[in-house]
Amino acid sequence: MNTPLRRVAGFAVVLLLALIANLSYVQVIGANSLRQKPGNSRTVLSEYDRARGPMSVGNRAVAASVPTNGQFSYVRTYANGPLYAHTTGYYSLLYGASGLERAENSVLAGTDDRLLVDRLTQLLAGRAPAGGSVQTTLLPAAQRAAADGLAGRRGAVVALDPATGAILAMVSSPSFDPNLLASPQTSVEREAWTNLTNDPASPLLNRSLAQVYPPGSTFKLVTAAAALSTGKYTKDSVIPGPATLKLPLSNNRLPNENGKACGPSNKTTLENALRISCNTAFASLGLAIGNDAIAQQAEKFGFNQSFSVPLNSATSNYPLDADRPQTALSAIGQFDVRSTVLQMALVAAGIGNGGVVMQPYLVARTRGPDLAILDEVTPKPFGRAVTTEVAGQLRDMMVTVVAKGTGRRAAIKGVTVAGKTGTAQQGNGRPPHAWFVSFAPATKPTVAVAVIVEDGGGATEISGG
Question: For 255-285, how does the pLDDT look when each residue is reduced to its tens digit (9 = 90+)?
């Protein structure tokens, strides 16, 4: 064989080996990731031939596969679809999966490695393979109350059990009907997708987890926690609270919402500053304790990292390199401070739980087709944000906010409620967002809540309605 032929033959061998290597990677190493890739219609088509497992809220399935006489053996349906849409997500032939349909796909589809024995048993018995089930932590009454409270306004609600981290309600508004994206008719899916993705209200966006907002005055809880944790302050400490505060290194002045001083002689206690949500007092406090102290406190509550519940949350941000004027603004939840609704619920829950923030979770347990438990969550701490003593002082201050301050409308007869209102400025002439965070009963809370209503703030501090 002459030299040119040897070169051609060698090149052909190299190509053949590369092809074999690529096929081996695709079929062995990369097969699982390709199979799980959203929008893989071949995988979805095969899974439509078997019963996908249910998702439950309380004792009722909110997502289930039902037999059909059409093109597919089963069709995915969602009970009270819009109420739970951002939890269940959708399972679409054309657009893949979202929400728990995606996060728990291997369990629901029956392809999880822990179900291998079950799949073999079904095969030997001649039964069609079936998926496992997912039990959420949501409470139907809490979910309905949260949705009714938002009443279609753009915003979100997250309610947690402070002692465990279980998510009791998670609502994003506006919502959508996942049944339209799980239709066996592709024309219906396409029309729904076009309408949803072109809607300026972004109904597919999970505002409770995936969106960050300036937390505004609710962040004053974190600044107060940082100050109390230094040991140099108590809730009765007197701090500056003038009508306006000149920002350092600047000619700009930060005003209070009502344009007035927060107490006689431009002074106020820390508790009163929180009660009336005094901007200048908390900006002064931030300057006194410094940006590092606030940043460290924020991170103890969960800022600057993401949570997986198992839906992934956006990362709430506290700026680590803020200068002094930026620190003053950050101390009142402005500048570059951003938070998810989940994160502010964790702040309230951590205070209510004696200073310990629990890892949040949305799935209580998963089961195989035979109802054997595959996984069951054991509540665990994220970490201690503040001492029990500091948490107690923050709780008392938050009780005063609801009893005598900006949060009066959140009072519940016969129940002591701890809360903090907030308005978060957006700039560009847009109305501020309205926030409220709380927990109740104050001394031994069973629920902590964070609520945001986009563009819902007025000219003055929003009350806890």
Answer: 998 899 999 999 999 999 999 999 999 999 9
pLDDT tens digits, residue range 134-182? 999 999 999 999 999 999 999 999 999 999 999 999 999 999 999 999 9
| 217: annotated active-site residue | yes
Of 65, 175, 208, 217, the active-site residue reads: 217
Tokens 């979202």 correspond to 98
Cα torsion through 411, 416, 417, 418, rounded to 10: 130
- Phi, psi for 93 (deg, rounded to 5): -65, -40
* Cβ atoms < 10 Å from Cβ of 164: 20
Residue type, 96: G
Q: Domain holding 422: CATH number? A: 3.40.710.10
Alpha-carbon distance of 99 to 76, in angstroms, equals 14
Q: How many other CB atoms are there within 10 angstroms of residue 2's CB atom?
A: 6
Residue count of the chain: 465
- Domain for residue 143, yes or no? no
Same domain? 182 vs 265: no
pLDDT band at residue 56, thresholds of 50, 70 and 90?
A: very high
Please count the structural domains in the chain. Answer: 2
